[in-house]
Automatic annotation (TrEMBL):
It holds the Pfam family DUF3097_N. This is DUF3097 domain-containing protein. Residues 1-21 are annotated as: Disordered. InterPro entries: DUF3097_C, DUF3097_N. Residues 20-79, 108-265 form the DUF3097 domain. It comes from Streptomyces griseicoloratus.
Length: 266
């Protein structure tokens, strides 16, 4: 008697083999059951941890055909080298090993002064190079209207500006309002100076001192804390050296810089 296969599934409906892909750090995949898309930050004990662009993490089991890579089903497997450890830039983003700097975009981010630019570079420098974003600095905001006019922001050349002490009703606020448009975004933090955006605990002090109105803020801070007021540049370099990552900065600054990066790279 002739034997027939018990599998009556048509060939076109049978599951086709899919490639196995090592769950290396920074690999971006989607879990189709939930639609969660993120970069691999960890892989061990039969699970993989993904983190999306907003910093939210989720753990998923390593199942056959369990993920989509560039829209195609794949099976994630544990890398041959063993457990994957989270690798991050100073801004807290997932690091992409071997990533090359992108050719600079036409868009730009302007910050108010040199100290601001140095702080942004130290914490977000890796992210900015990957995105091809150049950061330049102003010398105050009084000339911002003419700078924006000369830059002529547009769909392919967006302009983002970070301003110190941007509070409603201030001079800075009025200038920001006058230049903001669909392709030019001005945001700010509430601190008098970028120094104040560094967490006091990272510097070993209880709090930033209050400086009387009308007195130079940096000089007043140095005097109150016993730092050399005659060389605020050297003091700033000492402050900057204590900043290791985004964890040393206040959330009010973190959110604004991330907002500008998103704006100019959209």
């Amino acid at each position: 008697m002739r034997q027939y296969s018990a599998d009556l599934t048509p060939p076109w409906k049978k599951s086709q083999p899919v490639p196995e892909v090592p769950a290396e750090p920074g690999l971006v995949v989607e879990e189709p059951g939930t639609g969660f898309c993120g970069a691999v930050t960890g892989c061990e004990a039969g699970t993989v941890t993904l983190e999306d662009r907003f910093g939210k993490r989720r753990v998923f089991p390593l199942q056959p055909r369990g993920f989509l890579l560039e829209g195609r089903a794949v099976t994630l497997v544990r890398p041959a080298s063993g457990p994957v450890r989270p690798t991050r830039t100073a801004s807290g983003s997932v690091a992409v090993p071997g990533a090359r700097a992108r050719v600079a975009r036409a868009g730009r981010i302007y910050v108010e002064g040199r100290h601001d630019a140095e702080l942004v570079e130290k914490v977000w420098g890796d992210d900015l190079r990957i995105e091809g974003v150049v950061v330049e600095y102003l010398e105050g905001v009084d000339d911002l209207p003419s700078i924006v006019a000369d830059f002529a922001p547009g769909p392919d050349a967006r302009l983002g500006v970070l301003v110190d002490h941007l509070v409603p009703g201030s001079k800075e606020w009025r200038i920001a309002e006058s230049v903001t448009s669909e392709h030019a975004l001005v945001v700010g933090h509430p601190y008098i100076d970028i120094w104040e955006a560094v967490k006091p605990t990272s510097l070993g002090i209880d709090a930033w001192p209050r400086v009387p109105h009308g007195q130079d803020w940096k000089t007043g801070v140095c005097r109150a804390l016993g730092w050399p007021p005659e060389n605020t540049g050297a003091v700033w370099q000492a402050i900057l050296a204590r900043v290791g990552s985004y964890k040393d900065l206040e959330p009010e600054l973190l959110g604004r810089v991330e907002e500008l990066i998103d704006f100019v790279t959209t």
